User: What shape does this take?
Amino acid sequence: MTAVAAAHGPARRLRAHGLPLVFTIPALLFLLVLFAWPVLRLMSLSVEGGTLAPYEKALTDGLYVQVLLNTAIIAAYCSAICLVLGYPVAYLLANLREPWATVGIAFVLLPFWTSILVRTYAWMVLLGRNGIINRFLLETGIIATPLPLLNNMTGVLIGMVHVLLPYMVFPLYAVMRRVDPGLMAAAEGLGAPGWQIFRRVYLPLTLPGVLAGVTLVYILSIGFFITPALLGGGKVIMIAVLIESQVRQFLAWDFAAALSVVLLATTLLVYFGLKRLFRGDMQW
Assistant: This one.
C-alpha cells in the first residue's frame, strides 16, 4: 500500500500543478492573438523600410515633440484634477453607512453606463458658445460675453476628467475602506489637531490608493482619443489624435506605428517610474 501511494504521489502533484496551467492556456492564447501579435506587428511596421527614420522624426521634429509634451502635460493636469475631486468623494463613500454607500457607488458607476462618444457630444452641447452653460451665465448676468469652454484645453480637461474620475475614486475608496478608524481616534485622543491627523495618519495610510489612482488616470489619459478630438476641435492635439491623422489623412503607417511605439514606451516608463519611485507600494 505504501509503494502504491508513493507511486501515485508524483501523479497527484502533477495533476495539482498541471491542471491550473491547462486552464490558463485559453487566456494565454487570447492574449497572444489579440494583444501580443498586434503589438509586434505594429513594431514591425515602424521599421518596415529597414530604417529608424520614423523614430528619428517622432523624437527630433519639434512639432511632434511638442505634441508629446502637450500630451504629458494634459495627462498630468487631468490626474491632478481627478485627485482633488476624487479624494473627498472616496472619503465620503468610505464613511457612509449602508444603504447610502451603495447608492453613492451607483452614482459613481453611472457614467460607465453611457458611451464615451455620447457623453462627449453632450459636453459639446453644454460647453458651446450658445450652449446651456454660457446661456445660463449670460441670462443671469454673471458674464457679459460667452466663455471659451470649447475647442481648447479647458473643454478637453472637463471631458477627460468626467470620463476618468471613477478610475480615481475606486482605488482610493478600496484603500480608505481598510483604514482603521481607531487610529484617527487615538491620534485625536493624544491631542493632535484635525489637519495633523490627516497629514500624519490618514494621508500616509491612503497613499497607496492615491498612487494607484494617479497612475491609472495618467496612463489612460496619455492614450485618450475621442474626447480630445471632439472637444479640442483640432486645436488641442494629443498623440493619439496625431496617430489617427497620420493613418487617415497621409496613410503613413510606418510613422503612425513609430508614434504608437513611442506612446507605448512612454506609458511603460511612467508606470515603472512611479512604481520604483514609491517602492512598488501601489496595490489596491
